[in-house]
Design a protein that fits this description.
The chain is 79% helix and 0% strand. The chain is mainly α and 456 residues long. It has one domain. Helix 1 packs antiparallel against helix 10, helix 2 runs antiparallel to helix 9 and helix 5 packs parallel to helix 8.
């Protein structure tokens, strides 16, 4: 493990940047193949319905993934804190216990998702002309939950111990494979059948499946910094309790956020398929702007976890401060470009003038707020890396259900319609970032570290 990045020593900025850049690269690849999905779906004969189906389905899939996302967060937090404390065998025990829990959970989610697909999609007010395509896409994604969960979980373990390079390489391979498979399976190029919107889902599942199996292989072969052994696989009940302590509120946080997205998506759908398509393209913009924020979110979580595990409280806080600042300035620069040239982005995914014209409002009403939401994302990572998942949960619930949804609905009932909804979301981003920063400055979140070691 001595080849991993130890964020408890040396320059804070250098540690954060070294941890963040591979994560940002993976996120960039993720964005690119999400763009590829949307690009090729927009070339189908029923492009408006297909884009709306992918948008609606992704909102629901994200909720189901979030049910297990808390476990991935807890796994990364414990891994980083045990690593910082020098308890390397405990890192392996965390990996074994998490894999057992994740395997069982993913199977349950797949069964429930496929069994109640129409009912779940109906909760999002899915239009009748979109429902058949949404069900096709959703069922395939549900069938591949085990692969998706495995990829995120194992990558989280490696990142927790400072190995962000391996997950980057694996993520790039997955993304490139997805981009290659999209047109082949969707349009029946070469020996592949033409599966339309189902092809986009199959490409995602296959690409995640291939890299997940490979990642398991190299982990158990000892070719990475963390070496797992089949004979040592067991459930550690002490670690289960710690995972639940962090993972339950973290999972609730992600589910609440995802449910909020569903509520907003349901309101958007009431304005018709043009609004749903514009919102879907706008969410691809979100993923672009979230890319650096999520990179520094995870880098900050790793650095904070390692430093608190090592008893370095002040260094943990300063690591968080640096991650917040660099995220804010990065997003300001990206947002300024998108605000001035929104149609350059929108025309990549749609040729329909109505969709593009409406999408311009999405870009301009939300772009100016992304620097603030990016800082909030990083602060969530800081709290979760420290083990203060309950605080993160409370602040996220207040931000979403106390600000974002009420403002989005309130503004949507004005003459602005769906444009008002987007404006309300943007306003809530700014307010909630300042609310969360108040708690960050207090520093009490550092008291929640599970692995504690007295500083020198």
């Amino acid at each position: 493990m001595n080849k991993n990045i130890d964020a408890t020593k040396g320059s804070i900025s250098e540690s954060i940047l070294k941890l963040a850049w591979p994560i940002i690269v993976v996120n960039l690849v993720q964005v690119i193949y999400n763009f590829a999905d949307t690009f090729w779906v927009s070339r189908l004969y029923n492009s408006t319905e297909a884009i709306a189906a992918v948008t609606i389905t992704f909102s629901l899939v994200f909720v189901l993934i979030s049910l297990a996302g808390g476990l991935a967060v807890a796994t990364g937090t414990l891994s980083s804190q045990f690593f910082g404390a020098g308890q390397y065998r405990k890192v392996e025990d965390v990996a074994y216990t998490s894999m057992i829990l994740m395997g069982g959970f993913s199977i349950i989610i797949s069964i429930v998702g496929i069994g109640f697909n129409r009912q779940l999609l109906s909760l999002l007010n899915t239009p009748d002309n979109v429902m058949p395509y949404a069900i096709q896409y959703f069922n395939i994604m549900m069938g591949g939950m085990l692969f998706m969960f495995s990829f995120f979980l194992l990558s989280g373990v490696l990142r927790g111990i400072g190995d962000t390079h391996t997950p980057m390489v694996i993520g790039v391979i997955s993304g490139v494979l997805n981009v290659i498979l999209d047109p082949l399976i969707m349009f029946g190029i070469g020996p592949f059948p033409a599966l339309g919107i189902r092809g986009a889902a199959y490409a995602t599942v296959i690409s995640k499946g291939v890299v997940s199996i490979y990642l398991l292989y190299v982990l158990f072969k000892g070719k990475l910094n963390l070496k797992l052994k089949v004979k040592n696989i067991k459930m550690d009940m002490g670690i289960v309790k710690q995972l639940v302590k962090i993972g339950l509120p973290a999972g609730i946080t992600q589910v609440v956020i995802s449910m909020g997205g569903i509520v907003i998506m349901g309101r958007v759908n009431m304005f018709g398929d043009i609004a749903a398509a514009a919102h879907g393209i706008g969410q691809r913009l979100d993923s672009l702007l979230f890319m650096p924020a999520m990179g520094f979110n995870q880098a900050a979580a790793i650095a904070v976890g390692q430093n608190l595990g090592a008893g370095e409280r002040e260094r943990a806080k300063q690591s968080g401060v640096y991650a917040i600042k660099v995220t804010f300035y990065t997003l300001i620069a990206i947002s300024a470009f998108l605000f001035v040239f929104p149609e350059l982005f929108l025309r990549i995914f749609s040729n329909e003038q109505e969709v593009i014209a409406l999408g311009v409002y999405y870009v301009r009403f939300l772009t100016v707020a992304f620097a603030f939401v990016g800082c909030r994302i990083v602060m969530n990572g800081i709290f979760q890396g420290a083990g203060a998942a309950f605080l993160s949960m409370v602040l996220s619930i207040v931000s979403l259900w106390g600000l974002r949804i009420p403002l989005a609905y309130l503004f949507s009932y004005t003459a602005l319609g769906v444009r008002g909804l987007w404006l309300g979301v943007g306003v809530s981003f700014v307010i909630s970032a300042f609310v969360m920063y108040i708690w960050f400055k207090k520093g009490t979140w550092m008291d929640k570290a599970i692995v504690k070691k007295e500083s020198d």
